[in-house]
Prior knowledge:
Subcellular location: Cytoplasm
Largest sheet: 7 strands, parallel
Distance between the termini: 37 Å
CATH topology: TIM Barrel
EC number: 4.1.1.37
Site (Transition state stabilizer): 77
Catalytic activity: uroporphyrinogen III + 4 H(+) = coproporphyrinogen III + 4 CO2
Structural class: alpha/beta
CATH architecture: Alpha-Beta Barrel
Number of domains: 1
Radius of gyration: 19 Å
Function: Catalyzes the decarboxylation of four acetate groups of uroporphyrinogen-III to yield coproporphyrinogen-III.
Amino acid sequence: MSALRNDTFLRALLRQPTDYTPIWLMRQAGRYLPEYCATRRRAGSFLQLCKSPALACEVTLQPLDRFPLDAAILFSDILTVPDAMGLGLYFAEGEGPKFERPLRSEEAIRALAAPDPTAELGYVIDAVSEIRRALDGRVPLIGFSGSPWTLACYMVEGGASDDYRHLKTLMLDRPELLHHMLSVTAKAVTDYLNAQIEAGAQAVMIFDSWGGALSAHGYREFSLAYMQRIIAGLKREKDGQRVPVIMFTKGGGQWLEAQAEAGADALGLDWTTDIGLARQRVGDKVALQGNFDPTALFAQPEGIRREARRILDSYGNHPGHVFNLGHGISQHTPPEHVAALVDEVHRHSRALRAG
């Protein structure tokens, strides 16, 4: 494969000096882009788009053709893993993801098995290879998965939930049964991410979208411990290059010190945590990724630029910052506002380095 021409993102994750702060966006290939919407219509559905390596490659590259972003992220969905475990993923119009067979019985949970990622998830692995070839060294490619806890939220509830009552009831009534489910899912995620790395992913990210719904004790036992297990099992070097790992718990800013001990190279932050204080709290243990509020992208460009400068100034002229949103971009975001954000991050961070 071609040599990497822009490795700023990877160097920032490893806390190495960079000429500017790199930026990519969670859900950067999405419905806010008209070209993405056109490709999705051609695919017929979101799931068909995910399951076509050629179309997944096409939409992965679309934001890079619009904006000078510093990384590409595989176009897929965190729920492909439980789908491969036999739960029957489908997307109800206007309702989001659902599972035909949520895990509500001990028998179903005990029968759960980790899939072979090159078989049941082969379409994702093929997409990684195709995207990496198409990038041709332009920027690094990020692979990803959901965390075991976050996947369990969907696997037990059967879809999105306001209170996770089925899962939290299981956690308190039958903790050993939940631990079994999380152990199997952690193995599935480890195998899946290693297969992505083998296929060409140059960094990987674990999305713990619902870890912040737990208590402090629950987070350590049922979420963080399993992410730590995954990180310990990952292939951390490929072709002589370090493969950095990013761990992101939305709503988890109060547990940064514990997260920094989990073995990841970088921690993601949502917008509720001050990034300057976070840097002081974790010291030189990890890089930090974040943490622009995605809703702030509805402001006018000058307001967007001002907020970007505030975050960059808060972090300061130190290595180890990857600029990102605090969660996924809204489908209603004007693309020209994204252009203003990317431009300001590059412009102001270069000025910070020069100062």
